[in-house]
């Protein structure tokens, strides 16, 4: 019987039987290795899948081991590997509270993010900016976060103002600049400086094309939208005297953006207008806007827009948003929304709260509910108090098992099938004519 070949006996040894110097992580191998690890973080639900009970301490150690590997890979030579590592860290940070782990490595993470933003290309810069947001969300407001912002703030501003950088990178950095400043800033002069940087970007959208009516649509519109939304977020934490100055500066100019060809710009301008009116009426109960008739006419036209050249989905979204904006401007009314997370409920009852919630939801994605339950910073922002502590028995009774979910989904599927079958039968009978 032939002897089995020894593993690595040929291709891993050079002349004379000496071990060959093999590169342990080539660019391609590193990318594959990273992507295989990343699959575990592609879905935040993967952290909380139902199944047999496991040792939480061992699971945490395994998670931290993987995260250490991702942090190391942010320094890899391959851009693809670095980007995959950044995305994996983003998924983990949005799905778990990792304060202690991050605290020990915050400077390393900050250096990696700074290097990726400075030297990376568009996709890598976007991923790094997104990770910077999540890093500050994890750390919350404090001295450590201020140190992170002192390092990354100038880099973000430089990219935002750099006309040679890609629009996507500038857009991501504008959003990151606004969120990080909102979280960590304690120096009022730095707050005003950041707002001025963002103002200089979106105010360019006010400029009208001399040869056309309305706002000229350019490839910079996505950047203007992100800068406007980030600026609006920071306006919500400004002192009232500064709020009054900003309202006087922008309230008469913002309505011009309602004529923009881009749906997202129209919606961003409309929601910003509603927020400005809300803040203006808080500072002055007798606030009066001179061009109210013209503004309400524009808002009503957008709330009932039926232009055939626009997609149905866009028209539906626009009408829904501008109905609320019109009610806010005309009637000082806001449609209260309820957000459920675990056993708790949060009511969004004003435009300031809505703007803040939507901003963090965009960053955290499906991890928003988890952070609302467990993240001290977010709970302070939304005035939810300390996290609600539930024992394991209570959590187990509240949790629906996978088998129960399967039964529920099967029953719902059968009910839908029966209902649709009846509708199809009715449609079949309509074909008879006299």
From TrEMBL:
Record-level GO BP terms: cell differentiation
Organism domain of life: Eukaryota
Tell me which UniProt keywords the record has, alphabetically: Developmental protein, Differentiation
Which residues belong to any copy of the Interferon-related developmental regulator C-terminal domain? Answer: 375-428
Q: Acidic residues composition bias: which ranges?
A: 50-59
Q: Which InterPro entries match?
A: ARM-like, ARM-type_fold, IFRD, Interferon-rel_develop_reg_C, Interferon-rel_develop_reg_N
Q: Name one GO cellular component term.
A: nucleus
Q: Which family does it belong to?
A: Belongs to the IFRD family.
Basic residues composition bias: residue spans: 1-10
Q: How does it assemble?
A: Interacts with PSIP1/LEDGF.
What name is this protein filed under?
A: Interferon-related developmental regulator 1
The family database entries (Pfam families) matched by this protein are listed as:
IFRD, IFRD_C
